TrEMBL record, chain A:
PANTHER family: BLL4140 PROTEIN. This is ABC transporter permease subunit. Belongs to the binding-protein-dependent transport system permease family. It is found in: Cell membrane. Keywords: Cell membrane, Membrane, Transmembrane, Transmembrane helix, Transport. The chain crosses the membrane at residues 20-44, 90-114, 126-146, 191-212, 224-245, 284-303. It comes from Brachybacterium equifaecis. InterPro entries: MetI-like (IPR000515), MetI-like_sf (IPR035906), UgpAE/MalFG_permease (IPR050809).
UniProtKB/TrEMBL annotation, chain B:
It comes from Brachybacterium equifaecis. Coiled coil: none annotated. PANTHER family: ABC TRANSPORTER PERMEASE PROTEIN MG189-RELATED-RELATED (PTHR43744), POLYGALACTURONAN_RHAMNOGALACTURONAN TRANSPORT SYSTEM PERMEASE PROTEIN YTCP (PTHR43744:SF9). Belongs to the binding-protein-dependent transport system permease family. This is Carbohydrate ABC transporter permease. It is a multi-pass membrane protein.
């Protein structure tokens, strides 16, 4: 870029104005809907009330609301409900890292060993179909299959395994098993999608490596261990890091759909906390403070995760000097 | 598929001649190990065998593999099957089954007729289709323009503008300020509230930009020397070359608009304006009574029966249909290359 500076700005402007014009609609949308709200986080330091400017827009109310320093943050950080939400969020993330993350890799390995291309394509398209379903749809389907009046309980009742009048297996509303439920929903919806990425990585492996290893006496498991898994390593690390950086975000729509059925003890996560406190509860400043804490910590996590990637010798999500 | 080359990815690069030799050399052992394969056409028998250097996995393992794959497939398909079947079943069949129908009984389209006869649901479908169409068009157009505008690294303000987008991938303002902004703009209960706040995704712009940057520079330079402006270059040269990647991005946006329910929950307080996903949530998931439902006896309050299961499942199917319609298209374009390239880029 530096060597281009020889061309005077006027000339470059005359040359590049169509490009600037093309970028501008997106930039305007970004400024209005991403950057102005960032500035709007100022209400986290206020005691914001929509009634500070009755009958006018929230903007005026922000201007009129008094500043209260870090009071909202104090309230958030001393609220047991907030820490409950943090705990649930981290638990769900940890659970999904252990129980969800390996599934796409295993399915990809399994499918990669299927020899008939027709069968492969068919299975592949079936398992990643649910990725395109909405969360409402996924939760509804789970409810119809696993819910109290759902298919599973009915079959168990008909088989005489549970009493006909009993409540049946309580899967959809049980706080104790909620982690498993959330994870299995995530697996059902997105394992196939994750698989695609690993299959793509597998297809880049040079087949001669397998042949050479086999001739050298490596059995199938050793070939997987020494050829396949190393080939997947960059992808695994990249996705793992993306997920770690995103630790504080766990399927918001998925959770908010089920929070009331399961109760906030188990199903309240950071995002739903912000929604219920801030918007439902009308305590906007409090919700904004919680949201801001989440945003800042998430940013630090992403940056940290990326450093970790570099430490592993991987490209990570971004690099210091792009192109 | 050419018949000669159907083997594992491990031997994908093997030349057909080699594979043919393997086939004849191992025919006898194939017949011994698997009687079934003897009935299969000669060229196809090798398919289940893999390359010559690969040992055949033990039987237990092969059975396990098949079982696992069947199970995985069923876990996805059975729920969809029973949802569709129930939506097509008569009340009687559903009652006899005691809920979701697994064994087909009497079939009927009544549920769909009821739903599509002009009540809340049919209106919500129109809302969803409208928002999806307008949103996808707007998002895709704005993103393509922005991506092309950012595709030349030596242009004026290139880096600062790129950062405007990159930063949004790492830090988001949060829900509360976004809500206050939308309400300041007077967009509460406006369909624009479902479109504008999430209209551009930095990620999609980067996918498009990575593709545009890969377009052969010399062609573009030639066009510029011939006097074509950037808009012309984009319209006449770049766009025709990027059909697939634009389709993928449009698909991302379209599926997103069709599936989203939270923005509607947040910004649309008027239930008459609800999109399909929100209707699905209240009437099916939460079991709220469908207003104006034909199956509800008028005047009965409180004790009104819940919307029939067939009706509910029909709503589920209607939310599914657009996804299934675009799915073959997804298959065609969502090839590994695009996705993987995008993630790396």
């Amino acid at each position: 870029m530096i060597e281009r500076r020889k061309v005077p700005l006027g000339t470059r402007l005359r040359r590049d104005w169509p490009l600037l014009a093309m970028v501008s609609p997106a930039v305007v949308l970004m400024i209005v809907f991403a950057y102005i709200p960032m500035a709007g986080n100022i209400i986290a330091f206020q005691s914001y009330s929509p009634y500070a400017a009755p009958g006018q827009s929230p903007l005026m109310a922000i201007v009129r609301s008094p500043f209260v320093g870090l009071w909202n943050f104090q309230r958030v950080l001393t609220a047991p409900d907030f820490w409950n939400a943090v705990g649930n969020t981290l638990m769900i993330t940890a659970f999904q890292l252990v129980l969800f993350f390996p599934v796409p890799i295993m399915i990809a390995l399994l499918l990669n060993s299927v020899l008939a291309p027709g069968v492969r394509t068919a299975i592949q398209s079936i398992v990643y179909l649910p990725h395109f379903f909405s969360w409402v749809l996924v939760v509804t389907i789970f409810q119809q299959i696993l819910g109290g009046a759902g298919l599973l309980n009915r079959l168990l009742r008909q088989a005489g395994l549970i009493s006909p009048d009993g409540g049946g297996l309580d899967i959809m509303t049980n706080p104790d098993t909620f982690l498993l439920l959330v994870t299995s929903q995530a697996v059902w919806k997105d394992a196939g999608w994750g698989m695609i990425i690993f299959l793509a990585a597998l297809s880049t492996v040079n087949p001669e490596l397998y042949e050479a290893a086999a001739i050298d006496g490596a059995n199938r498991w050793r070939r997987i261990w020494h050829i396949t898994l190393p080939a997947l390593r960059p992808t695994i690390i990249l996705l793992l890091i993306l997920r770690l950086g995103d630790s504080l975000t766990v399927g918001f729509e998925q959770l908010i759909l089920q929070r009331d059925a399961v109760g906030q003890g188990a199903a309240e996560v950071l995002d739903t906390f912000v929604y219920y406190q801030g918007i439902q509860g009308g305590d906007f400043s409090y919700g904004a403070a919680a949201g801001l804490i989440k945003g800042v910590v998430s940013l630090l996590l992403v940056l940290g995760a990326n450093r970790l990637a570099h430490a592993f010798g991987e490209a990570g999500v971004y690099q210091k000097e792009a192109r | 598929m050419s018949t000669g080359m159907q083997e594992s990815s491990a031997s994908r690069e093997a030349e057909p001649g080699t594979s043919a030799r393997i086939t004849s050399a191992q025919r006898t052992s194939a017949q011994r190990t698997s009687a079934r394969s003897a009935s299969v056409r000669d060229g196809r028998r090798r398919r289940s065998r893999g390359p010559v250097w690969a040992e055949r996995p033990p039987l237990v393992e092969r059975i396990g593999k098949v079982l696992a794959l069947v199970l995985i497939t069923l876990v996805v398909l059975v729920p969809l099957y029973t949802v569709v079947l129930t939506s097509l079943s008569t009340e009687e069949t559903i009652t006899r089954a005691g809920g979701m129908v697994l064994v087909p009984g009497e079939l009927t389209l009544d549920a769909y007729a009821t739903i599509l006869s002009g009540n809340v649901v049919s209106r919500s479908i129109l809302v969803s289709l409208g928002v999806t169409a307008v949103g996808t068009l707007l998002s895709t157009a704005v993103s393509v323009l922005a991506a092309y505008g950012l595709s030349r690294t030596d242009s004026v303000l290139h880096r600062p503008l790129l950062f405007v987008f990159l930063i949004t991938m790492f830090f988001s303002a949060g829900m509360i300020p976004a809500y206050l902004l939308v309400s300041s703009l007077g967009l509460i209960n406006s369909y624009w509230a479902l479109i504008l706040p999430g209209a551009v995704s930095a990620f999609n712009i980067l996918i498009l930009r990575a593709f545009f940057m890969g377009v052969d520079r010399s062609i573009l330079e030639a066009a510029r020397i011939d006097g074509a402006g950037e808009f012309r270059v984009l319209a006449k040269i770049v766009l025709p070359m990027s059909g697939a990647v634009i389709a993928v991005v449009a698909l991302f946006y379209g599926v997103g608009y069709w599936n989203s329910f939270f923005s509607a929950m947040l910004y649309l307080t008027d239930q008459g304006k609800w999109p399909l996903q929100l209707v699905l949530r209240s009437y099916v998931l939460e079991g709220v009574q469908l207003p104006g439902s034909e199956l509800t006896p008028a005047g009965v309050t409180g004790a009104a029966p819940p919307a029939s299961l067939a009706l509910k499942m029909a709503i589920v199917v209607l939310a599914l249909v657009p996804i299934l319609v675009i799915y073959p298209f997804v298959q065609k374009h969502f090839t590994k290359g695009v996705i993987f390239g995008a993630i790396k880029g």
